[in-house]
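Obj: model holo form, ligand = tetrahydrodeoxyuridine.
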Amino acid sequence: MTVELSAEDKERLVQAACLARKWSYSPYSHYPVGAALLTRSGKVYDGTNIENASFPLSNCAERTAIFKAVSEGEHEFTAIAVVTANAGSPCGACRQVMAEFGLDMLVLIADADGKIHREMTVAGLLPGAFTPADLPRP
Ligand code: THU
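Output (holo structure tokens):
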């Protein structure tokens, strides 16, 4: 079930993503991305994109935030804010990783001034997602 977030909560999450974006390691693309993930328990995990001279090894901001949260035992997420210079959209890999943890999470896509350009659920971002429910139970 999608959780309603107040305008203030959205603003706070976007601001956390704006701050995280400053830690971006993106010497190749020069496209810094910040993300902030709100857990159902109320914690915020931020993340940024981390590139590598071996380009395919780079990690996106959204996945950094999600992996940080999961590595601390969190699996239930309410919302994620993603901030780029031009309010760019989450990539396909990040959409798939979001879908692993639920299709109802709210995704806020904002620019570097903190202006939210689009918001939708993971289900809206990745229609027909392949999810854990598609796998047979042992
Ligand atoms: N990037 C993200 O961090 N998130 C996305 O969803 C799209 C792309 C990063 C990866 C790379 O470091 C840079 O943006 C340019 O693709």
